[in-house]
Amino acid sequence: MRLLSSLAVTAALFLPSYAAPFLKARQATAASIYKLPGSAWIENLVVRPNGQLLLARLDVPELWSYDPATKAGAKVAGFTDALSLTGITEVSPDVYAVVTGNFSTRGFSVKAGSWAVWAVDLTGTTPKTTQVKLVPESGFFIGIAPLDKNNVLIADAAKASLYTMNLDTSAYSVVLTDASMKAPAQGSLVEGVHGLKYQNGTAYFTNTFGGGFYKVPVTLDSATGKVTAGKPTEIAALTMAEDFILAPDGSGSYYVAQPNANSITKISADGKSSKAATATSCSSVAFGRGANDKNMLYIATTNGAVFSASIA
């Protein structure tokens, strides 16, 4: 999430003085395509199989949709016993795992022990929401990624940890706690490991206050359900990085939102970086899933706006 400028300056004192090699490249033009009503804050977004965007709001515990074809937006679902949504991921076609909890966008404060995972099923005519599990030990759940249709990884930004949770049994455990996920406190807020994705046996994550973009091997034993993790290694020394997406073209590139720099940064497979697009207060990114928008990067922002940028 985008922080007050004073927090960003303080965080910079703790960050490495080096950065990934930065290349100059042609930037895509980001165009505003939608704005949520009021003082909205979009923390995360995903693209549905039908091409609609799902927008997870941090300012209220609501999930919204936006259809790029009709240009219409609407509330999809609300969630009880929470102030906010943070992470969202698709676990099977049009079925999602959503992270809820108590975060104040006014005071930038987090309530430990308030974080839960919900299942959201959009395959029927009416959205179906079910709480999977409230985790009393949680510090600040934020990123979430599927290991398979039944198991997810969850990033705890306050405890420098990755959890795993089975969506069928509600069983959960800590898979990994590591210094690469840790961050210094900025007042009452600790925000380390943040964005989280999983692909082909590897989890990728950003560390917002602590700095860096990392990968770590993660294995799910399908017979026992046990999840194990290796040692994280740094891909790029990014600062104040939040959510990201792996490029769908198989190039091994990543597109990372850096809200304090108002920048979407491309990290190539060799670790070199270049500015892909500019979007004020960007928080999350996702590529389109249709034939006509597969190269379109959708960008959510902390001021409730959604942008799109064509990535060549």
Automatic annotation (TrEMBL):
Keyword Zinc recorded: no
Taxonomy, superkingdom: Eukaryota
Keyword Endoplasmic reticulum appears in the UniProt entry: no
Source organism (scientific name): Sporothrix stenoceras
Keywords, in A-Z order: Signal
Signal sequence bounds: 1-19
Residues annotated as transmembrane: none
The protein's name: Six-bladed beta-propeller, TolB-like protein
PANTHER family documented for this protein: NHL REPEAT-CONTAINING PROTEIN, NHL REPEAT-CONTAINING PROTEIN-RELATED
